[in-house]
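Render HipA-like C-terminal domain-containing protein in 3D.
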Amino acid sequence: MTPIFVEKWPFDEDFPYHPIGSQPKQILICPSDETDGRVVAGQTYIFKTAKRSWQANQLWSEMIASRLGQNLGLTVPTCHVGLNQETGALGVLMQSFIQGPTISRSRRLIHAKDMLARVLRDQKTGRPHSLQLNLWICRLLGARYGWSAVDWWAKTIAFDTLIGNSDRHPENWGFLNEPEVGLTMAPLFDNGTSLGYEHNDSKIQGWGVRELERYVSKGTHHCSWVLDADKGTPHIDLCEILVQANPEAGTSMQNMIRFGQSLVDDILQECCSYSVDISFTPERAAFVRSLLGLRQERLGAILGG
């Protein structure tokens, strides 16, 4: 497959660069004469490239998370591989959920960081960050606007566990506010810090079951269960704690592991089919397949399915 070529795409006139996040992000508009059917004319897209070379595989983590999450029924922004042929910049091209021809001009994204400002002692790291407090805030809002905080968080932390996401900090989740609709949870965006992105192909070469299990066991969420913790809770542990505190969360989590190997293989094959400088190799595909399978198995063990 070929990437989406963006060198002729104009910048957003008002906000050409996205100000939040650690990676460089350009805000581009898909031209009206774009012929690639994978993108929408007039739609706003965020073109995100890696700041450092060791973060380059976040491109594939975003792609896989987008495809997998949408197939599991989650609201995750659609992502593509983007390339500026003039500069050589290669990155993820994410469809904006804030601006576009079919999106209300009054829609606004409220980052959770703004809601939690009084408790975040460290604004840079977004800590302390407690799932208990997140649930309390979201329950209040969900009760008013008609959505379930427990269901949303159960699916979110199960999905983050599945992909090994360690970076759902208070700037990577939030709310959409539209006067005509009210307040809803924002899509699950910025999913790149996952799926072993930090290890290049030479690092994972020769990994067996022992290395994979050790790596998966070290994974943590950004948030903890309690507010006074100074680090994130291990992925599986936080899922188990939430189910113990809210048994109904178990059903929501089970929906996140009901997928077959064929779905994963189709997604990985798409990534392998791109001929780009940051290639998604068969070796990396096998690595990601093993990570997803092991985490799916561990989630199933605590959920009884």
